[in-house]
Amino acid sequence: MTALVLAEHDNKELKPATLNAVTAASQLGGGVHVLVAGSGARAVADAAARIDGVSVVLLADDPSYENRLAENVAPLIVSLAGDYDAIVAPTTTSGKNILPRVAAQLDVAQISDVMKVESADTFVRPIYAGNALATVQSTDSKKVMTVRGTGFPAASATGGSAEIRSVATAANPGNSRFVGAELAKSDRPELTAAKIIVSGGRGMGSSQAFSIIESLADKLGAAVGASRAAVDAGFISNDHQVGQTGKIVAPQLYIAVGISGAIQHLAGMKDSKVIVAINKDEEAPIFQIADYGLVADLFQAVPELEKAL
Amino acid sequence: MKILVPVKRVIDYNVKARVKADKTGVDLANVKMSMNPFDEIAVEEAIRKKEAGQAEEIIAVSIGPAQAQETLRTALAMGADRAILIQTDDIVEPLAVAKLLKAVVDAEQPRLVILGKQAIDDDSNQTGQMLAALLGWPQGTFASIVKVTDGGIEVTREIDGGLETVALTLPAIVTTDLRLNEPRYASLPNIMKAKKKQLDVKTAADYGVDISPRLKTLKVEEPPKRAGGIKVKTVAELIEKLKTEAGVI
Ligand SMILES: Cc1cc2nc3c(=O)[nH]c(=O)nc-3n(C[C@H](O)[C@H](O)[C@H](O)COP(=O)(O)OP(=O)(O)OC[C@H]3O[C@@H](n4cnc5c(N)ncnc54)[C@H](O)[C@@H]3O)c2cc1C
Ligand SMILES: Nc1ncnc2c1ncn2[C@@H]1O[C@H](COP(=O)(O)O)[C@@H](O)[C@H]1O
Predict the structure, then answer these.
(1) Prior bond to B37 cis, omega within 30?
(2) Spatial CA neighbour of A151 closest among A124, A129, A182
(3) Which residue of A70, A72, A177, A203 has the lowest C-beta tally within 10 Å?
(4) Ligand 1: which atom is nearest the Cα of residue A286?
């Protein structure tokens, strides 16, 4: 039994989500290989080779993999799948984009967003915005799954010395082309890897006012999150959205400011270790899951909190 | 061009799902059901393409129980032209849905299929990508802008790091994200008109597709409950608790 993990990277750096996926893959009970599909991505393969528990890194280095277009990467994985019992990717937008394409080409079900590996064929995954947890057993000969970062500890990024093998590129269908990207630049920690997150909701009122969330986050060395309403209103960009259909986070401390606590938002943060809610409405549902609730006007409480830290 | 829009009947997004006592699933008896919100966005996008003169016909399709006809009628009332229900009371997994949709695509020959990115009941986020794979079509998933260009489409996608734009040849698959548009409400006259629009009812067997599940659900449980918290009165008290009791700052 060997599992192939699809590395998350940007051709320069291996992303931490890969480390959680390696842990999940190793729990399937066999060896773990990592696939780096990229362009000029040798450094990523080197980093993947150092992950503890990884024995082989496959490097598919070709311009057609530069932006990890699903149309190009899926056939590559399918061409390699014969050697593997499981294909695993982190539940990132890239993993979610590529892996179902692989599963369909292999004619197997995909198990999405696995939180727990019970055995090599049985998995726990959230459904209904995490209000129910389903234990499912796969009857397919090959398992294809995305895994939730917060469900598995990160494998150690050092200590391994995997062999790096170059693999042939697969035929590229030529039906999609990368045009451009607008990537958020920030010195703050990445949302899914942060120990502390300060999130703002519709209660912030405007993008100017949202800056008090950012300055509190900076004081705490925290990442900045947001509710859908805050993103929809244009207070902050989409990559900050926490929730059922945004990012799933579980930091040590999650501070929800001006967020009511809709099912869809809770789905993304209720596994945080400590939750603080600041809201002027004492009936807001967020208080039902908060460890520490402060009923207050956020425009007073947040600056006061920042000053007192 | 013709646009196909798959719409799923799911629990209403305002309702909190409750697990059945016997742990076999979620209790949907007497629960409000609606069109999957991402599919409303998909229907809206198709209508806007038609209104812009970029599409001629919109076909809504659903796989589900007889009541999914209501979901299709909603799509028709919003502005879809006709509808197909592939009726079944079984749970149909994304791979089987994708196979059925492929059969519909083969029969109807749309140039564009717009799906939701995710059904809010199974939270799979698979069907559009699987359909793209089965058809060998390109995919623009998690779309926040869909622009029809000469010979193709340009799709701006919501990704973890921000936004990304890809150019796809047609025919193609699009899956919607929340910011693509704000779906319209159907007006009363349009609801009345929708009752007269064509709605064909088929079965999986009509398309010769095997929909047997690949996953066995062994049990469905409630997630662990969080222990109740406390209210603090002041910012100072909050900081004190976070430092000494929780030890997180
Ligand atoms: C298909 C679908 C997917 C979705 N996915 C997500 C998702 O991934 N993530 C997500 O977050 N949402 C998601 N939503 C949206 C969700 O249902 C809620 O609409 C959203 O989370 C509400 O955001 P909010 O709490 O910021 O706004 P509101 O619900 O409007 O709450 C604002 C809060 O701010 C408080 N407030 C206002 N002013 C002040 C003040 N001065 N001081 C203190 N408090 C103040 C108010 O009391 C209120 O509680 C989704 C919805 C759908 C239909
Ligand atoms: N039973 C169904 N009937 C029609 N469309 C569906 C069905 N299941 C899934 N879809 C479509 O596929 C999208 C993604 O669903 P899923 O992959 O289950 O998260 C949905 O938003 C719908 O557009």
Answers:
(1) no
(2) A124
(3) A177
(4) 49
Cβ–Cβ of B26/A138 closer than 8 Å?
no
SS3 content of chain B, % helix, strand, coil (to 5): 30, 30, 40
* B162 with A239: Cβ contact below 8 A: yes
CA quadruple B177, B181, B182, B183: dihedral, nearest 10 = -90
Cα–Cα distance for residue pair B110/A45, rounded to 1 Å: 41
Q: String of b and e for A283-296 (b: at least 16 CB within 10 Å)?
A: ebbbbebbbbbbbb
Residue A250 CA: distances (Å) to CA of A152, A197, A223, B22, B66: 11, 9, 12, 29, 40
Q: Read off the pLDDT of residues A117-157 as tens digits, 9 standing for 90 and up.
A: 999 999 999 999 999 999 999 999 999 999 999 999 999 99
Q: Which two tokens stand for residue B35?
A: 């069109």
CB A64 within 8 A of CB A30: no
Quote the ipTM score. 0.98
| Shortest Cα–Cα distance, B142 to chain A (Å) | 8
Query: Which phi and psi angles does A137 have, rounded to 5°?
Result: -115, 130
**Dist. CA A292–CA B229, nearest whole Å:** 6
- Pair of tokens at residue A229: 């309403």
Distance CA B10, CA B120 (A): 7
d(CA A52, CA A54): 6
Give the residue among B112, B128, B6, B143 at the shortest CA–CA distance from B64: B6
Query: Whole-model pTM above 0.90?
Result: yes
Q: Distance from the CA of B39 to the center of ligand 2, in angstroms? A: 8
Minimal-distance CA residue to ligand 2 atom 7: B8
